[in-house]
Every structure is written in C-alpha cells, then in structure tokens.
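Contributing new records

If you add data, match the layout below exactly. Sequence lines come first and carry their own label; structure lines follow with theirs. Keep one chain per record. Anything else will be rejected by the validation script.
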Amino acid sequence: MDTSTSSNKSPLKFFLLVFALAIPLWVIGTMVKVKGLPLDVPVTDFIAAFIPLIAACILVDQEEGTIGIKSLLKRVFDFSRIRQKIWYLPVIFLMPIIYLLIYGVMHLFRLPLPIGVEIPFLKNAVMSVAFFILATGEEVGWSGYAVDALQERWSALTTAITIGLVWAILHYPSIIQQGHDFIWILWATLGMVGMRILIVWLYNNTEKSVFVCILFHSIANIGRILFPKYQNYNPLVDYPEIHYSIIAIAAVIVIFVWGSKTLARYRYT
C-alpha cells in the first residue's frame, strides 16, 4: 500500500478521532456568526474541512512516523496513477452534467429559476484554488486513509456508504445551525452518501488516485456556488429532494453498471 498496509490502519480510530476534533468546532460554531459566506455555511465549516487530513496525519505518524506522513501528503498530486486518461471525463464533467440535470428537472416542474448565471472568471479562478485546498483537507483523510482500510474488510459499496454516513453526520450541526429541518437532513444524507459512492467509484477506477477525488470534490463544490440563484433564493437549498435525489440516481447507475463489490467491474466489458 501507499503509506502503511491498510490492515494496520484503524478506520474506527480514524472516525472517532475525526469526531473528537470536530466537537470543539461545533461548539464554537454556535457562538461565532459570520454573514455572507458561500451557501451561508458557518465559518467553522472551512476549518472543519481539514479535520480528516489532520486525523489521518496523526494516525499515520503513530503507525509509521514522518515518512508515512510525507507519503500520504504526496498523494494530493498522484495524477501519475491515472493510466486510463478517459476517466478525466467523469471527474471533470459528471458534476456539471448533474447540475444541468437538476436545473432541467426544476425547469420541467416550473419552479422559479434564474435564467442566466454570471461567472466572474478572476473570482472563479481564486475560488477554484480555495475549493481545491478545502477538498484536499477532506479527501486526504476520507480517500487517502479510510477507503483502502475499509475495502480490505468490506465491499466498495459498503465502504462508500459507511464513509458517506460519517461524512453526512459531521455536517449535521452546521445544517441544523442553518435552520434546516429533519426531512432536509434526510435528503442531504442521501445526497452525501451518493456523492461518496461516486468518489469511491472514481478512486477505484483510477488506480486509487487521491488527486482524482480532490478534483471531483472541488468541482462539485464550485458547481454548487455557481448554480443560478437569487440573493435570497437558492434552488439547490430550497428543493433538496430534486438536488440530492439526482445525485443518488447517478450513484445507483454506477452501482448497477460497475457492481457493488468493487465499483470497478464494468458490466458490459
């Protein structure tokens, strides 16, 4: 394996450490309010994005020291693993297509939608770098540490669902802080599990490239920011049943075509 053998890694320790590091931020998030942030998320969410990376580094340091940490961090740019370059197509274009489908379904149901979207390219470039860094904080932990350790024990689908549920639960405090109800949380959980299935699918089909997971994750977040909306009206937020169900449907298609055991055995080869 890339750092230590996956059998030496403890997914349970990783998850517990992630929650232990997150709890202080949840408390701080209830006391510190910053207006005008993207999607109105609490400011502590931007710090929390680095918790999976920190937790992974702590555990890898215990398992094999500084060498292991360096090896783990090198995976941020491990694009040399990607032998079949065609996989860049879903990595780059799948989420934009999903957002187009979401917009199309909302338009079909005659929901109120902004007609156009303004894309400030300079601001967008800065935002892309920022979201890549934030996605790095998450995916070095989820994909670089936890996935292989879980896949040695369980199927790829079970691995993805497990990480997706943990990932979703970590977002519950900020979701509640934003004022969303129980039904909204259920839809968000479905969407985040679906997203994690897509990420594990891409990871397993690109020779376990963490860079691919980071890039896909950052593109998804950029798409959420650029999705057409008014100042006080965001269709992605106001219609979670459409937003998250389409992501879940994409995940179900992946499971059917590539199989639940590895998410990497193409049914029609």
